[in-house]
Amino acid sequence: MNPLNAHKGDILIVDDIPENLQLLFTMLTEQGYEVRRVLNGKQALNAAKIEPPDIILLDIKMPDLDGYQVCEKLKSTETTRDIPVIFLSALNDAFDKVKAFEVGGVDYITKPFQLQEVIIRVENQLKLLKMQQQIKQKNDELMLLNQDLKAFSYRISHDLCNHLNIINNSTYLLIEKYAKKLDEKAKSYLNLLEEEGLRMQQIIEDLLRLSQSQYIQMTFDPINLSVIVEEIITHLETDYRHQKTEFIIAPEVYATGDRGLIKIALENLLGNAYKYTAKTEKPIIEFGQLEINHQNVYFVKDNGVGFDPEQAKELFIPFHRLHTNQEFAGTGIGLATVQRIIQRHEGKIWYEAAVNQGATFYFTLKKISPLKSL
Length: 374
Hints:
- Keywords: ATP-binding, Kinase, Nucleotide-binding, Phosphoprotein, Transferase, Two-component regulatory system.
- It is an enzyme of class 2 (transferase).
- By secondary structure, this protein is α/β, with parallel strands linked by helices.
- The chain has 3 domains: 10-113, 3-Layer(aba) Sandwich (Rossmann fold), CATH 3.40.50; 147-215; 221-363, Heat Shock Protein 90 (2-Layer Sandwich), CATH 3.30.565.10.
- It is 47% helix and 17% strand.
- It has helices at residues 18-29, 41-50, 67-75, 97-102, 115-178, 184-215, 225-239, 259-276, 334-344; strands at residues 10-14, 34-38, 55-59, 85-90, 107-111, 221-224, 246-249, 254-257, 284-292, 295-302, 349-353, 359-363.
- Helix 2 runs parallel beside helix 3 and helix 7 packs across helix 8 (259-276).
- 26% of the residues are buried.
- Residues 1-5 and 368-374 have low confidence and may be disordered.
């Protein structure tokens, strides 16, 4: 091997003709590869098992075990199944290319060997192998990261939320039982503590929902969206009895998706519509369905404060808000959650809005169920 060439890969050559082995050995070592040679299939299996190479050049026509059989055995063993196998075949030999790929081969080289062809085919497979290894490494890293995120979410949901609930409940009791004994400044501190505690609790809950929207296992079922919207509105009207809002709900609107996730998305969209119409004289919120380019499009529309679309380019990014907390309370996580949910359903979400003229959010879902009663 030329010492000026860095080690580029470990290659195992399998051929029952010593002259072929020597020729390939010389060609590849001069290019900087570490090369091992064996004369039959049994030796190849042992060599690959003891020290798996990066790539195998495997002759088809051999006694006892031919190349196809060797490749099948390699692919049936966990430690060797991912090793790329390039078949070697003489031009005058019967070579079943379909079978070669069926048993797990990735390429083939014909004899007599051409240096440039051998190098190109070997380098291509090693590049692919390196890319696969990098992808596997990234996937492993992502899996570890996901495990960390799940553990972190568990910590938040079980530990931090419990501690925060104690703080919030204690603050509430202080205000209820001892407010009369405190001066106005002390009361203001307690009220601020209560407000910020509740806001922190809302942020944690919204972050958990955002996390769940990305990792929860989905089930696709027929859904009556109109029924879900009516359920959500009932809760909104109970929570905000002071706000008299007119609701227009299209009946019998159906889709196919994960009911739990779709409900979270609609809760966020309707909750936002309810919030941003709070200062409107005659608030109206509408849910319905359109057909655009032969695709069902669902929408939530309101006549609230709206927003400037030119300033809303990052609207679906977590914590990005178009209104201050003094104007409208919120965490800036709801729309990010909605987008994640729609994307998981292979749909799209977009909006139309204008300042003081309300906003409409449109979304699509991958599948549409037959229009029938559920």
